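Morning!

This is the sequence you dropped in the shared folder:
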Amino acid sequence: MNRRDYIKLSTLASIGLVSASGTSLYAKNTQKEVLHLGIIGTGSRGGGIISILNKMAHIKVVAVCDVLPFRLFNAVEISGAKGYTNYQDLLDHKGLDAVLIATPFGMHGQMCLDALQAKKHVYCEKTLVKGIDQTQNVLDAYRATSGLVFQTGHQYNSAELYQKVHAYIDAGYLGEITGFVCQWNRNTNWRRPVPEPKYERQINWRMYREHSGGLTAELCSHQIDFINRVIQQVPEKISGTGGIDHWQDGRETFDNIRLNFQYPSGIDATFMCTTTNAFGGYQIRVMGSEATVVMGLSGAKIFLENKNKKLATVDGVSGATATAWQQGKGVSVKANTQDSTAQALEQFYQSIVNGKKVYADIKSGALTSKCVQMSLDAMYQNKITKWDEYPSFRF
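The structure's back. Tokens below.
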């Protein structure tokens, strides 16, 4: 084994993707202990998570909550759990171990506080909390607890694919990291059907600033969290633009955005989201002095800068890999392609039951929340926001 392969294997082992022998640790769970979970918010995200959990015998949904009767009815039907219209009543459900919060972004803060007060483990969907003060309140409440697990819903960072790319970056496969180019493009008005006008703001909450951070909080936050984690920095400055330029339908959050993050090391990261063109869809481009990784939701490829350069093998691939590199073609990163949310939920379970490390923890979630708020301020107020001009978190 050459030095680079040794570094690569050691890095992968350090983040729990391989054992010392190189065997994947993402094996089928054989634990018998069952985690009893309550889900607060059973809309498209919460309902989708129930469908995933129905396939995981070691996590049982025992309670669900929603203020919309038709959504609650559907959640009870597909989960067999007890239904609640008030999340405080759900927190009192006998035998409840943990809660998953999948409500509108603006509601996360108080629900996290109440769940921690009730001594429940918490999985809170992204973005963690809206606003700097509310984020600090949740951090303070968590710090006052003992033995509770808190995981944020930046599920792509829990996926083996993303952790492998992270390991390759740490091992030096890409050389010096110089920048990130991110996009998440869609061709849709981003609206959900509303059965009655009175439900407009509850169903289409993403369109209204009271409860939403729009495209930044709902989409870009995943990529922001990944970049902060990979380079172990937070942005020094953020600038951005956006507008309601295409969907004149009463929405308050932008239908297209552009953001630029400047990090202390000189690394730049750009983010683009639009709702009028889906070309390229979701992508993170990690640019290094020796190679580039282009990442999607379920796959990634490495492209060499110098086609004649000889690199050590990646995941044991040699001959075909070398030919592909010489032709300027990308080489796929081998990784478990299981649904990233399922992998995140498995990590949540392992953290609670077996004391495993919380990968998408409350600290990284809080830092991303601050980035989201700074981004919104930069766009809404047409200014450059600076990290040091905002309150520092107490962790």
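Headline: The first helix runs from residue 3 to 14.

More detail when I'm at my desk.
O.
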